[in-house]
Amino acid sequence: MNITLPDEILKSAQMSADDIKLELAILLYQQRKISTGQARHLAGMHLIQFQKELSKRGVYINYDVEDLEADIQTLKRLGEL
What we know:
single chain, 81 residues, mainly alpha, 67% helix
């Protein structure tokens, strides 16, 4: 799916198409509607680059108890190798 924005909107907002993509990616990520991977892909950035952008804006990385438990299980499996 592609979204087309009129040039007048971009000009009025004083933003490029890439700026709009980044803003949308961060908004959807903050609302937990998309994952980190999806957000960074939408923004056209590498993971570290996207995380730095989140940090600049004071946005926390979505990491909850379920993520922690999954990481612990992964570390346990790796320790058994």
